[in-house]
Amino acid sequence: MTGTPRLPLAGEGGSAPGRWEDACLAARLIAADPPACGGAVLRAAPGPVREGWLDILRAAMPPGTPWRRLPPGIGDDALLGGLDLAATLAAGRPVPRAGLLSEANGGIVVVPMAERLPAGTASRLAAALDTGVVSDRPARFGLILLDEGEADEAIAEALADRLAFRLDLGGLGRAGMSARSPEPERADGPAEPDPAGRLCALAEAFGIASLRGPILAARVARLLAGERSIGRAEIVAAGRLVLAPRATRLPAPEDGVPDTGDGPPAEPPEEPPAELTDPAAAQVPDEVVLEAVRAAIPPDLLDQLLSGQARLAGAKAGRVGQMAAARTGRPVGSRRGDPRRERLDLLATLRAAAPWQAVRRREEEARRIVVRRDDLRVRILRQRTETTTVFCVDASGSAALERLAEAKGAVELLLAEAYVRRDRVALVAFRGVGAELILPPTRSLTRAKRGLAGLPGGGGTPLAAGIDAAVAVALGVRRGGSRPAIVLLTDGRANVGRSGEGGRGQAGTEALQAARTLRAAGLSSLVIDTGNRGEEARTVADAMGARYLRLPRADAGQLSAAVRAAL
């Protein structure tokens, strides 16, 4: 990478660059070294803006560079490579077939509707980006994830984290696509003594936990500098392009942003001796760099950061992608199809080919079984999606003993309903200063009743900890292929925060934050109010996006119907 010519920095010597200028600069960087940059998440609706950016990227790449588009529902054989089944059967020997990722070596893979990408396909793409090898073939490529910006679906964070750029061109029209010539190159400035340390400090200031952020920013800075040493301008540009869209918080004043208070200016500290200077001091991001990166944070993200509600990108595939990726279930027949996308039914294939063997052997003078593409049959699978109900029970002192007994009775009723459906259940209880998993996901009704009967009551109400624990269990269930639903039984009167300290104000705020996190994760939920007033629990239910039911008015039929509706 060090031998590449220096790329002009958009906006050098002029005003701050716009979204389109930064997107064009990112396209040139990806074209210069696709594997080093990883690629980009492009958030834009289908139309001339998105296609215009893709055209710029393709035009910036050398002629003949591979360019592949990932078809929806692609199978592992087509993606990773394997045996060409039809050619293997025709030739009587193994005939390998390269996958799409190997064919894209050195080029670009474009993924339409990436927010609906199945979780399995996303993990295979991430592994290929990490290793650069697929089925013993080189597969070093750049990945362009096209996100159409659906509000209820998000690209898997594990995949987006491996890509340098996150470009948001939503709402940008043709007028915003006016090309601007790069500013003349500036004279060389002083070299940055520790660019990696500076970028790591910058990432820390903006709350970026993943190390991939500063690593990718360092690669981008190297590409921007070309054969020159990395200077402040490259640090600012890399921070603007790579780190700003990843920000989860704004820098605190001690991170380098000056205090704007009205007090008298503090006297400058004495200059320490050179031999006592802390080497880490050079890694503190200065005001200019921090403000440049802060200015590049997208307005909607900045509003969320200022309100403390950064957007949670779900590490899950879209619901459509999960259904499309399913390849398990009970076989109920076979049909003609492509075994590269679905499971081959070998017996049905041989039965389809058998009546034609006499004719085919005369035509081909072969003694073996002759199987042609039209004979291939795939299995028809009927799926049953397993459901896991995570019961989150308030066992605190605010739930009086008789109310806790009623809640236990309601949970036992719902457990019996889940047992009849052959679904799994899990039990989380919160009281005192935290929450605990009383019962991991199980189908054993006896174990569930035993865990419920031994549930003690009393203590504070750490509602946020209870919701957090239920979400953690539900996300683990979803990663395992089951469909989770959370049933929360509480009066909603939180008085213990996540830290274990008392205080209704902070505890209530944290409980609502946890409820919004549950909603952002796309989890189905039901809140059963065990209190007498109902205001607090209804507020929590609204934040969760959950169905709400008052226990005093809930009989067995209502409870069962409410749970079925939540599932």
UniProtKB/TrEMBL annotation:
Residues 388-567 form the VWFA domain. InterPro entries: ChlI/MoxR_AAA_lid (IPR041628), P-loop_NTPase (IPR027417), VWF_A (IPR002035), vWFA_dom_sf (IPR036465). Residues 176-195, 247-279 are annotated as: Disordered. Pfam families: AAA_lid_2, VWA_2. SMART domains: VWA. Gene3D superfamilies: P-loop containing nucleotide triphosphate hydrolases (3.40.50.300), von Willebrand factor, type A domain (3.40.50.410). PANTHER family: MAGNESIUM-CHELATASE SUBUNIT CHLD, CHLOROPLASTIC. This is Magnesium chelatase subunit D.
